[in-house]
Design brief:
Mean pLDDT: 95
Oligomer: single chain
Number of strands: 5
Structural class: mainly alpha
Largest sheet: 3 strands, parallel
Low-confidence stretches: none
Number of helices: 13
Distance between the termini: 27 Å
Shape: globular
Bound molecules: adenosine-5'-triphosphate, L-tryptophanamide
Radius of gyration: 21 Å
Strand content: 5-15%
Length: about 325
């Protein structure tokens, strides 16, 4: 990976819960498009996932399944490097160093995701959940990342990574590249089917999301039951018709049809026909995706992850060496 002249992209998904259409449309599908032009590194961020309690056996399988999702979404293992975060101890090492040298309590107190997630968990919040964005900054900065393709909700975390890198460079000498955030125009924030005011989330109830593993029957039910807006016209209006705007976005991204064309197609039909057709589009997508997912064995994934850890390790080590030197360690 050191020989490539292409700019580097780095991104990751937590191997928890059910990955859903929001993860796919907001992040992973975008990676597949970018992989040709960039030296691409896609991480399974298992250390982030343990900020909340995981069941060990389920977790082990979820880590493998997340790699399978990347592959089924079209990430080419010959073009891109898929690896497991906990295989490279330099991630936690750099996180600690950034904790001490660059991150401030006030930086982290301002993170909206922490505020949301900690409010939801009440008293039972780990220190790791608070520190989560610093580990994310370490992930990004270890590899000299140029760009970070993520969904809209992660923008604030990437901005923190930029700030920490700048602060470190200023205080200890030029060390880190400053990464750019990349957010796609449509699909950056897919909303929940049961509540179009909140993002689709795997931590919500199953009625909120379409999981990439949902059967045709379940998917059909979820879409037919998805909340709609008052009125009956299928028009894209995020402010006044957030539910229909969200369904139109999903339809458009999965079918390749423009939103304008879809509005025209359903101008006379009302919500029923529109939802029925959308359910079919999503079902076709899921069938194809699941066929690819199921064709990949656990063993294949284990070998790929093991091999790829060795590909990324030298760069991570070189960065840590440089950082330690700057600090006198
Ligand atoms: P949760 O679904 O529990 O809120 P999360 O967003 O905290 O999960 P991940 O599942 O690790 O964490 O997110 C992986 C990627 O998917 C990130 O780039 C994130 O921005 C993107 N993503 C997650 N939800 C959505 C969504 N509803 N719309 C668009 N992108 C999303
Ligand atoms: N916090 C991210 C996952 C993540 C990530 C990263 C994304 C961890 N490390 C580095 C991009 C780059 C989330 O989506 N929840």
């Amino acid at each position: 990976m050191t020989t490539s002249k292409k700019p580097t992209i780095f991104s990751g998904v937590q191997p928890t819960g059910n990955l859903h259409l929001g993860n796919y449309l907001g992040a992973i599908s975008q990676w597949a498009v970018m992989q040709e032009k960039y030296q691409s590194i896609f991480c399974i961020v298992d250390y982030h996932a343990i900020t909340v309690r995981q069941d060990a056996e389920t977790f082990r399988q979820q880590i493998l399944n997340t790699a399978k999702v990347y592959l089924a979404a079209g990430i080419d293992p010959k073009e891109a490097i898929i690896f497991q975060q906990s295989d490279i101890k330099e991630h936690t090492e750099l996180a600690w160093i950034l904790n001490c040298a660059s991150a401030r309590m006030s930086d982290l107190e301002n993170m909206t995701q922490f505020k949301d997630k900690s409010t939801a968990k009440g008293e039972n919040v780990s220190v790791g959940l608070f520190d989560y964005p610093v580990l994310m900054a370490a992930d990004i900065l270890l590899y000299g990342t140029d760009a970070v393709p993520v969904g809209d909700d992660q923008k604030q975390h990437v901005e923190l990574a930029r700030d920490l890198a700048k602060r470190f460079n200023h205080d200890f000498g030029e060390t880190f590249k400053i990464p750019e955030v990349v957010i796609r125009k449509e699909g950056a924030r897919i909303m929940g089917l049961d509540n179009p005011k909140q993002k689709m989330s795997k931590s919500a109830s199953p009625a909120n999301y379409i999981a990439l593993t949902d059967s045709a029957e379940i998917n059909h039910k979820k879409i037919m039951r998805a909340v709609t807006d008052s009125g009956s016209s299928v028009t894209f209006d995020k402010d006044n018709k957030p539910a229909i705007a969200n369904l139109l976005t999903i339809y458009s991204l999965l079918s390749g049809n423009t939103i304008k064309n879809l509005e025209h197609k359903y101008r006379a039909g009302g919500y029923g026909d529109f939802k029925k057709d959308l359910a079919e589009v999503v079902t076709d997508f899921l069938a194809d995706f699941q066929q690819k997912f199921n064709a990949i064995s656990d063993q294949e994934v284990r070998e790929l992850l093991k091999h790829n850890a060795e590909l990324v390790r030298p760069k991570a080590q070189a960065t840590i060496e440089k950082v330690k030197k700057q600090l006198g360690l």
